[in-house]
Amino acid sequence: MAIVEVTVIPLGTGNTSLSSFVAGCLGILEKSKGIQFQLTPMGTIIEGELEQVMNLVQQMHEQPFAAGADRVNTIIRIDDRRDKKSTMEGKVASVEEKLIKPGGTD
Amino acid sequence: MAIVEVTVIPLGTGNTSLSSFVAGCLGILEKSKGIQFQLTPMGTIIEGELEQVMNLVQQMHEQPFAAGADRVNTIIRIDDRRDKKSTMEGKVASVEEKLIKPGGTD
Amino acid sequence: MAIVEVTVIPLGTGNTSLSSFVAGCLGILEKSKGIQFQLTPMGTIIEGELEQVMNLVQQMHEQPFAAGADRVNTIIRIDDRRDKKSTMEGKVASVEEKLIKPGGTD
Amino acid sequence: MAIVEVTVIPLGTGNTSLSSFVAGCLGILEKSKGIQFQLTPMGTIIEGELEQVMNLVQQMHEQPFAAGADRVNTIIRIDDRRDKKSTMEGKVASVEEKLIKPGGTD
Lengths: 106, 106, 106, 106
Known about the structure:
The first copy, chain A, is an alpha+beta fold. The first copy, chain A, has three helices and four strands.
């Protein structure tokens, strides 16, 4: 299981708004089983088996071309931890726990 | 107002867990006025006046050094839109609206 | 043909030097036909057919695990332009040409 | 001394070609003393004192707005190593050395 953030950016579209492209990309994830995902203001974070997630990410990258774009920049960040199970929820909880009980960090 | 995602990664720490470093970085944001921020499983997203946010990001980058790290990789993504006011909440809402009413994208 | 930058970062290795991991990743590219690549101080840039490049990138991501790492962060940026052929060499040349003959930009 | 990669991406320009914007950003670096930089097919890599480099990066981010863009996405990656002096040239040389004498990695 890996956690992957993806941001798909169509270029040269002539419109500063990109939300309809992002919605198209999310449509791909909504149809997929075996993954969790969350939309953030800067991209989409997906949790699942790495090979499946990377396959979905490549489908998301194709989406703006299908919607008319001629150039797409896609940024992918993989966080893959294999010494223990890592989840989107667990990662955030682990940080928040240390904020509530200060002293752990400094 | 810009929206900025930052991920601070200490290297060579000998420990695969980084949550205490992340908590230290968030401590800097909690003390700051005039910004909004949210923790995600892949980083921290900050909304505010660009110069102030970049100043905070540079303080966050220093945090792992203060906590003992010798090498830090920091990834920053700025989304800066000046033709209309853009907010973290507004960006997500704009995509979700298009998901509820399909047709805009495909 | 797409141009893809990849940076593979093993975490928690206990050593701030990562060059041996990078060399291992490059070994994968040196054995591959049909692609061009160049090493930069911040990653590796690969030019080739997108599906093949993404397959190689995923092999590169596995390399530090094979070499003993327990957590790997990999950053991938795809620049995919389909209205004209784009190459690593052509992109740099296009910018340099505009530097020599100023006026094009402003 | 830190090594910083920056990619400045104007959005909604109506033109898939971005090289004139990139040339404008490089003009800022060409006038600056105390830094080294190199253009790659995926961005610009700058070596220098971190505070100075981040100041230049923020000037580069402003450049497309001055040239007419209404939205700019800028990606910045800082590699900051403080246990030994790290240079752009030294990082690449360190990897290449391990490629010539295999055995170090695997």
